[in-house]
Amino acid sequence: xxxxxxxxxxxxxxxxxxxxxxxxxxxxxxxxxxxxxxxxxxxxxxxxxxxxxxxxxxxxxxxxxxxxxxxxxxxxxxxxxxxxxxxxxxxxxxxxxxxxxxxxxxxxxxxxxxxxxxxxxxxxxxxxxxxxxxxxxxxxxxxxxxxxxxxxxxxxxxxxxxxxxxxxxxxxxxxxxxxxxxxxxxxxxxxxxxxxxxxxxxxxxxxxxxxxxxxxxxxxxxxxxxxxxxxxxxxxxxxxxxxxxxxxxxxxxxxxxxxxxxxxxxxxxxxxxxxxxxxxxxxxxxxxxxxxxxxxxxxxxxxxxxxxxxxxxxxxxxxxxxxxxxxxxxxxxxxxxxxxxxxxxxxxxxxxxxxxxxxxxxxxxxxxxxxxxxxxxxxxxxxxxxxxxx
Length: 390
Known about the structure:
Oligomer: single chain
Number of helices: 18
Radius of gyration: 22 Å
Helix content: 55-70%
Structural class: mainly alpha
Strand order of the largest sheet: 1-2
Number of domains: 1
Shape: globular
Strand content: under 5%
Low-confidence stretches: 369-390
């Protein structure tokens, strides 16, 4: 088994274009894995009196907010997204590719796997209702599956707007977030004003990535500035301005840092972007090893599939666990103490196995032919040619 894995790793390494920046793929992989593991840790499905309802350990154990500091990695994903889109659009323009063709290819990569998810869950919902599952249970599960899609809608909008926002300095959307929060929280302005930060908040790391792509920053120097400044700004906002400590939404909380993004979430995201930029050199050295690079490359080929189906994998394990005839700790029980946390950690490998099954069933929707090429191309027997996404 090990020799075969090593041989595959060397084939992937040899098939990678020499100019490929492997660190960007590594950052994308780390960002998506952070979101997946974070969701699995802070989402609880409690089976009670014939229904299933959702909650979070952050409600009863607010001291676990530190989990969100590690695993809420969306800003890094938007940083990489801005970098890749700006680079890709510049290359497309140099080759004479029309904007509509470039944008259409990007949207297909995003939404073909989404269509597969929606079609599958439409069938699942019909089957559950026909089997007598209560409507509130179906609603809970469906919201859990669909809630991550808001992020894709924002990401798709920013990607489509790349020609307009690629040269926008990150300080401009940051100023928008600052002023919106001042009006909302300082002057008692309308909550609806927060809708502006859904775009502006994620534009900050996206524009930072675009700035990086066009050579407008030095990664190490920028990282050394953003990491401490972002941490200090976030700490000040949490300690002295009343922002929540959790960087994800907590059920029942009056204010969420993520919906819509607050100044605290944006400052924290900048700190994460700084850390990501400082990781570039260590990652570059690590990814010279074929086995490490093969893992990153293969995950990137199905990154959307992993993101879209990770909640379904958790739901499937939870549903199958009901066959035990009693609530299983960390899976069906209320998250009310350290015992639940330890039990949930024990379930993570099971969730990962279920996600692997989903990946095997649905990865082809992400890797199918796009714009005249393939994400993965098989060459002659014994040889693999990998064409990565720009």
